[in-house]
């Protein structure tokens, strides 16, 4: 034994080598293994649809899509309540007042108009009516959008019955006295230039006539009128009133202005 080995033995630094055991190797250790996962269930084929059931929608609908033309002669009607619930517009695949429009403020104004007279006869629920080409707008009192179903069916029944009867829907006298589009355009333009625009010029506003279709007038409110907080009041009480005094057979006055894009609102 050498000197170095003697020192290791005295101080306990030496260690007897353990014999090599093959069963200590990692490769041959036996560890528990988890059981194999169960195979996934076979994919189920989607059931085949062998037939479809078509549900006939009632008169009252949710969409504002205009009814398609009825090739088989059936009268198609779709109703669209407004968000406030005060009005409901009926779209018909037949002309109500072809190419023209007319507003009725009450039962007395409907005298001589067959369809309007029957609608007002439904009761005090109906406050006013508007005929516009193939649409009819009914205004009622104290209605919510969900409350229209019963009244809409009754209105739809009257419209369908009057159309299928083949009789007139509008006043023949009013239709015969209706001025031409050119006459209406000329008179409305004159009112705009001489009466309307001088009045709204005080807050840098202006009104432009966009066009006339039948007896329906479309306008645009620009300058200070675009986005003005009083635009609706100005249209209803000022502009429309001036137009109707000049053209007694005037129909609807449509404001085609994008008031949300107004950059010069006028508040008073």
Report what the structure shows.
With 268 residues, this protein is α+β, with helices and mostly antiparallel strands. The protein contains six helices and eight strands; from the N terminus they run H-E-E-E-H-E-E-H-H-H-E-E-H-E. The strands form two sheets. A five-stranded antiparallel sheet has the order 1-2-5-4-3, covered by helices on one side. Strands 6-7-8 form a three-stranded mixed sheet, with helices on one face. Helix 2 (114-120) packs antiparallel against helix 3 (148-165) and helix 5 packs across helix 6. The longest helix has 20 residues, at 181-200. The protein is flat. The termini are far apart. Residues 20-29, 46-68 and 264-268 have low confidence and may be disordered.
E-strand count: 8
Averaged pLDDT = 76
**Biggest sheet, spatial arrangement of strands:** 1-2-5-4-3
What quaternary form is this?
Answer: single chain
Give start-end ranges of low-pLDDT stretches.
20-29, 46-68, 264-268
Number of helices: 6
> Would you list the SSEs in sequence order as H and E?
HEEEHEEHHHEEHE
CA radius of gyration is 40 Å
Name the helicity range.
Answer: 25-40%
Structural class: alpha+beta
The N- to C-terminal Cα distance equals: 117 Å
| Percent of residues in β-strands | 15-25%
Biggest beta sheet attributes: 5 strands, antiparallel
Give the overall form.
Answer: flat
What is the secondary structure topology, with strand pairs?
Elements: H1 3-10, E1 77-81, E2 87-92, E3 97-104, H2 114-120, E4 126-133, E5 135-140, H3 148-165, H4 172-176, H5 181-200, E6 205-213, E7 216-223, H6 231-246, E8 253-255
Parallel strand pairs: 7-8
Antiparallel strand pairs: 1-2, 2-5, 3-4, 4-5, 6-7
Helix pairs in contact: 2-3, 5-6
């Amino acid at each position: 034994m050498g000197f170095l080995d003697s020192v290791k033995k005295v101080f306990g630094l030496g260690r007897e080598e353990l014999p090599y055991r093959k069963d200590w190797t990692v490769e041959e250790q036996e560890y528990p293994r988890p059981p194999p996962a169960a195979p996934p269930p076979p994919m189920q084929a989607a059931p085949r649809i062998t037939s479809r059931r078509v549900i006939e929608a009632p008169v009252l609908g949710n969409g504002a899509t205009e009814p398609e033309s009825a090739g088989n002669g059936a009268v198609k009607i779709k109703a669209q309540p407004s968000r406030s619930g005060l009005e409901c517009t009926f779209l018909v695949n037949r002309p109500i007042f072809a190419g023209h429009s007319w507003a009725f403020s009450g039962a007395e104004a409907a005298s001589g108009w067959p369809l309007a007279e029957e609608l007002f006869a439904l009761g005090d629920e109906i406050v006013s009516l508007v005929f516009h080409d193939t649409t009819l707008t009914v205004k009622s009192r104290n209605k919510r959008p969900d409350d229209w179903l019963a009244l809409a069916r009754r209105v739809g029944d009257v419209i369908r019955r009057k159309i299928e009867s083949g009789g007139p829907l509008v006043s023949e006298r009013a239709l015969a006295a209706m001025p031409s589009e050119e006459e209406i355009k000329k008179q409305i333009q004159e009112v705009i230039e001489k009466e309307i625009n001088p009045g709204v010029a005080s807050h840098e506003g202006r009104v432009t006539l966009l066009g006339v279709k039948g007896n329906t007038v479309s306008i645009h409110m620009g300058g200070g009128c675009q986005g003005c907080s009083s635009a609706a009041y100005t249209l209803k009480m000022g502009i429309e009133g001036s137009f109707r005094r000049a053209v007694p057979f005037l129909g609807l006055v449509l404001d085609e202005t994008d008031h949300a894009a107004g950059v010069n609102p006028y508040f008073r």
